[in-house]
Design goal:
- The chain is mainly alpha-helical.
- The protein has two domains: about 1-40, no CATH class; about 60-105, no CATH class.
- The protein has helices spanning about 1-10, 20-30, 40, 75-85, 100-105.
Length: about 110
């Protein structure tokens, strides 16, 4: 959100681009006092890529909490929707970015 705020305040010279993902959209709900308005301060240029989403878990998944990179991330929303769909309860374990979460998943714990 720091980068989005700087991009929103940048001079409209055509040189500042903000590649983003769902975090920009979810931020409008999670953070009511942002220094920018994603709908008014940005214009879509085009799609950069699409990505598939997979769900992976340790073999002990049923007795261990599910790992997730952070509240409001795409992985967080996928986890919540998956848990709702299968009627499961999952605990949120926040990580400092998406990199440490798979490391913990592969390594066997937080």
């Amino acid at each position: 959100m720091i980068a989005a705020g700087r991009a929103a305040r940048a001079a409209p010279d055509g040189y500042t681009l903000l590649p983003h993902q769902e975090a920009l959209a979810t931020a409008m709900t999670f953070y009511p006092n942002l220094a920018f308005d994603a709908e008014k301060d940005f214009v879509t240029i085009g799609l950069v890529n699409t990505a598939a989403t997979t769900i992976a878990a340790r073999p002990t998944f049923r007795t261990s909490p599910e790992d997730c990179p952070g509240v409001g991330s795409f992985s967080h929303f996928v986890r919540v929707l998956f848990a709702q769909e299968v009627g499961a309860k999952a605990d949120q374990i926040p990580y400092r970015g998406a990199g440490p979460a798979p490391d913990a998943l592969i390594g066997g714990g937080p």
